[in-house]
Each structure stands twice: as C-alpha cells, then as structure tokens.
Amino acid sequence: MKESELAGGFSTLYAQLLEESGEQLREPKPLCGEAGQGIREELVRCLWFGTHFRPDDLATDDGRRLEVVSPGWWNVEAGPDFIRAELLIEGVGRVVGDVEVHTRASDWFAHGHASQPGYDGLVLHVVMWDDAEGRGIRLHSGRIVPQLTLAPLVEQEIGDLVEIVDLESPAPGEAAAPSVTGRYCGPALAAGEMSPEWLGGFLDCAGDHRVLTKADRMLGLREKASLEQVLYECVAEALGYRHNRLPFLQLANALPLSLLRETVPADSSTADKRLVLEALLFGVGGFLEGAEGADADEQTLEYLGRLRGEWAGAPEALRQAHMGPAHWSLGATRPVNYPVRRIAALAAFYAEHLGSGLFGHLVRVISAARAEGRRSLAGACRRDLLGVFAGTGHPYWEQRCTFGGRKLRAPTALVGQERAQAIVVDVALPLLLAHSRAEGDEELARRLHLTWRSLRPRTPNSIVRRMEQVLFQDPRQARTVLCSERRQQGLHQLHRDFCSGDSGCTACLLYRVHRVGRRMELT
Fold it and tell me: What is the pTM of this model?
C-alpha cells in the first residue's frame, strides 16, 4: 500500500492501517480498564492543573455547570492539593478555595480527610473515577462539597501525560518495568523474515502519526488560548524536565504573556527586557528571598540587587502570591539543569520576541531557510530551528548553577542540543504543523517534514531502551535502524498503542500487518 494521503509529507499510513484492520485510533489503555488501574494521583493532578479536559462539557457530578477560572496553586505543604482555586459554579457563583484531587472518589474516605479540619476550605473534589456509589463528599465542618469526575472529559492527550509522568522512573514502592524480549518482532527480524528496511519504514510512519496526533491536539489548544500563549506554556513545561514540569507550568500560568507584555517596557533594550523578565519569573518562582547565602561574591550581590529592584516594582498581587523552594525539585536533577538556569533560558527566549512573538519568529525561521537541494534545505531548517533554543548564553548563569554558587570550570549553555531538540519535537514542530494545516500552508508543512526527517536520534530514554529489547536481538542492528528521531518517536507510538499492556503480539499492528502478509510500500 502506498502513502495515498500526505500532510505536507507526513504519512497518514499508520492511521489508515489501524482503520483498515478494524482498530479505531486507541484511547490510552488506563482509561479503558478498571477504575484507577495504571493511573497515579500525580497524573490526575497534572490533568487538573493543566486543564487537560473538555471545558465546554464541564459539570459537577450533581449536574451543575462548572467553569475553571484558575485551577489554583499547587500546595507543597500538608493539606489540599491546590489552594486559591477560582471557580464559577451554577447556582452558587464565584467561589475561591481549595481543591483536593484523587484517583478514585473512595480515596477521600480511605485517607480520612472527612475528619481533618485542614480540608474545611475545600470548594471542589476532583477525581478520575467516581467509585463512591453516590456518597457525597462531606467535610469535617459538615459542609457538602461538589465533585468533578474527569474520566468522561479527558481526551487522548492523557497518553502523552502518562509518558511524561512515568517516563524515567517508577512510583515509590513500585517495581521498574522488567526487561522484555519481543515474542515475534525480535525473532522475525533476527531470522530474516522481517527486513530492517521494512521495519524502518514502518517506524517512520508510526513516528509521523505521533507528530500528526500532537498537531491535532495543538489545534484543540488554539480554542483555549493563542498560539503564542500555547507555545509559551509548553516551552516552559518542557524546560522543567520530568521533575519540575508542574511548577514550571504553574509559573507560566501565574505570568501569562499578556501580563508580561503589560509589565515589561516595550521600548527598553533586549538586555533590560531580559532582566525584568528574570525578575518577574524568579520572584514569582520564589527564588529571590535569601538567595545569596552567607558568602555571596560581588557579582552575585550586584545581580541580585538589580533583580530585586525590578521585583520591588512588580504588581502587588504577584509579590504577595508567589511560590517557594518547596515547590521545586532538585534532588534528582543535575545542577546544570536546575530550575534557575531554565528560568533564565525562558527569559532569554522571550526578551527579544516578547512584542513580536516567539511563535511568529519560528514561522519566519523555517520559511526563510535557504539552501540548494532537499537535503541541504532540511539541514538548514534543522539548524536554524534548533538554534532558537540551543546554546543560550548568559553573563551570570552560563557560569553558575545557583545564586552565589561556585563558578563552573567552563561556560555552559543554558539549554543543550538534546533539550533543544526535545522542545522542537514535543512543542515547536507540532505547533507549527498545526498552524500550517489551519492556514493551508503546504510549503511550511513540507519544510517541517524535511526538518523532522533530518533530526538525529537522541540519547535513548527508558521507553526507547525497552522497545529496542522488544524489536532487536542485535544491538548493532538497532543502532542502524533507529537512525533518526522520527523512528525513535515511532517506537514511542508502538509502545503507547500496543507494547505497554498485556494484550500480546497478536494485537499489535506491526505483527498483523507483517505476519498476515499485508502488502505495503513504505517510503
């Protein structure tokens, strides 16, 4: 079968094969099984805080319309999961208070919250599934709190969130995924029944499907916010890595682009804009209080003095409602990836493009790339797009990992090549593709596909390593086939759709297409 329908070069063959084989595009497995299976409370908190649900259908379990003005601030102390949430509830009006999140409604009772006065400020109970058989949520004070059940409202992006939350390590007390060898793929490839070229083509199509799916999700996000705001929030979240994604998203929500544009003087220099942006981001992030330590050097004191001077002029509401050190995770983070350096990188991204827009700049970067020949053009697009995010310098932070910390032996970019490529793959490329499809810009889509095909593979994460074990018995063959980011993302798609459960090889699309003898031409 040939790729009969293309989206600027992105293959839709994977989706076609799913449909032709009787499979619908799968909703992520955790939503299909027993309540709570495969879903951690951490993920449900991410769903609530990131508003990853259909807002137009929002209603409490007793049928009242609900609008989320603000999901609240993530609470790192004892008590409810989110504080200072702002909601509009039909028949009640505007309410401000706490929100508690659970995987199952019965967890409220299992955790004993009904007898704890610290939860009396609750205005909403958010659960993935309601398994409490209609029992209301009653507080210690006796007040009944409305409940919101997310499962019917969550769309397919939950699968990507599962990967974000569960990507690198198991939950506390949970065993890591065991090593696994494919019962079909590995032996078939080793015996020559499946050619490496055929498998590579299949992974190309699966990788394209993954990007197209992300682009569809980005189109949906356009209904909630502008493309510029979506880009800003997604880039901030990507800079947080695994352990600080949620606080980075909280920071971006507290400082939306509209507020930054109102606060940062439009006629100031790029360097001055960067300083103001840093002051706002560090201030709301809670990094300016007691930052210098006892032995701060002159450069640190001068830099902090300038930041605090700008922060003192920030709106009062921001200075009163800021985050603190407990929100941020440093324990499992390399010093060069500490949040302060990533916040400085975020400020640098937007210092130059706050007024004109970073998203518009990305469109211009891709559209302006020039080179002779398709391969050269792909390289130019890749280089210019990665260059927007990689290699960011800073007179202070390229030499430091903390305020007042010991200087690094050599200047180190705030964002390395691999993290820049992660931002391009997970954020910039899908968002630009969504824009090209919405505008009918085939030339932009074509250039994006050339860029996508030319991206080199990154250091394998746990999912890629696991899938290498499934598909390959020869590590050298794995390196040959998995020669691009596109194919690595194809592995992620296969893992998400078929290899993360216990359904067996016969349910897998790759097995059915190859074993049944389905004829394909994969280019």
Answer: 0.78
